[in-house]
Amino acid sequence: MDGAEVFLFGTQEINDKGHLTIGGCDTAELAKEFGTPLYVVDERLVRDTCKAYIAEFGRRVDRVEVAFAGKALLTTAICRVMDQEGMALDVASTGELYTAVKADFPTGRVKLHGNFKSDELLTAALGYGVGRIVVDSLSELERLSRIAGEMGKDADILLRVGPGIKTQTHSYIQTGQADSKFGMSIASGAAMEAIQLALSLPNLNLRGLHCHIGSQLFGLDSFARAVDMMMDFITQVRDEAQWTCDELDMGGGLGIAYTPEDAPPTVAELADVICPALTQAASARDLPMPKLILEPGRSIVGPAGTTLYTVGPVKTIPGVRTYVSVDGGLSDNPRPALYEAEYTALVANKASQARTMAARVAGSHCETDTLIPDTTLQAVEEGDVMAVFCTGAYNHAMASNYNRFRRPAMVLVMDGQADLIYERETLEDLVLHDVMPGRLSEDGQ
Ligand code: LLP
Hints:
12 helices; 9-stranded mixed sheet; binds ligand LLP; globular
């Protein structure tokens, strides 16, 4: 970004001190009060995006459920916000399920995912009364049927189907193509086999089908193709297995703008592609309209998150570049290292100044953890507060303790109020699970 260009989301503004504000809170003050690195979540933007999904899809089809993909960002407070907005919730591990339960999220609106769900996880899901289990393999069908029988319960399931669609996104986050560990492919016959098996096994209610074609997607045509592939398959299943699909889950995947050059479709544009594709496919094939389920993660929380860092040493290497170090990096945001993900930054306490300084934003881990390789910043100095935008999804969720860094705190901001929703980890937290075997202790006992 050049000049004084601004790239703001949701409730972000620049106040008369020239400071970035989010949810009416001055980010320089937030950094002082809560310390840095700090994840700041714009509650209004999260809520507005949930409302947009429910309204845009709800006005185009009769039956729709929007489930927040908790893998993008999950804490008990986030679960509560989702519940208040009438969202359903996707979980993909025992830990995510436990978080939802601890937040009193209605478990009937929880859907469980995963390509390897342990017996412990399936038992927990049935025990907590999870609404849908999205079965990913033939062996999982058999295990679930057995466990449900032993518990005297019936499991309501969806089958995860691989539609064989290649999408335009980083190869690490493509999931619907033929060569994938997820689901059972239509082309190989595994999906049909799974349906026959699910219908024949006791204690399973097959409610519908699921697919998820990838993440950070900008091309809406992939979604339209996926709807068509799924509806073709649903027709085939009706004819060959005499089973009617009542729920069709099209997964998540809508991309977001990490940089001003990114132009993702809006939620309304997504709905404008998926809903007519579904309605037309159903009427052309004389199928009843299934309930439409969506599972957005990134597009709900991504733009609502901003990470605040304190700027450390600013080093200019003559003829090379200027490195601006911040007090976080790989451990709070592994996405640049994992996916070459791009981010945009602003000097939060100099937000109204022109961008004049070419720099590389570097993390503070013991390796080359570049956060932003080439950017132009306001004249940045040690002690400033740096805001990195669009960190709401897959940042806290993928954070680690590398170099024994403590995971940052997270605050939810709205209407001038900031509430802590994740405490900064402590040094004691870091050694909590360390065990000193007796033979290593000083007295050898
Ligand atoms: N449903 C299923 C079954 C999924 O696997 C995912 C994401 C979603 C929904 C939500 O997709 P979204 O709306 O967030 O695109 N760590 C990667 C992203 C991995 C996505 C995994 N599945 C990243 O940081 O880009």
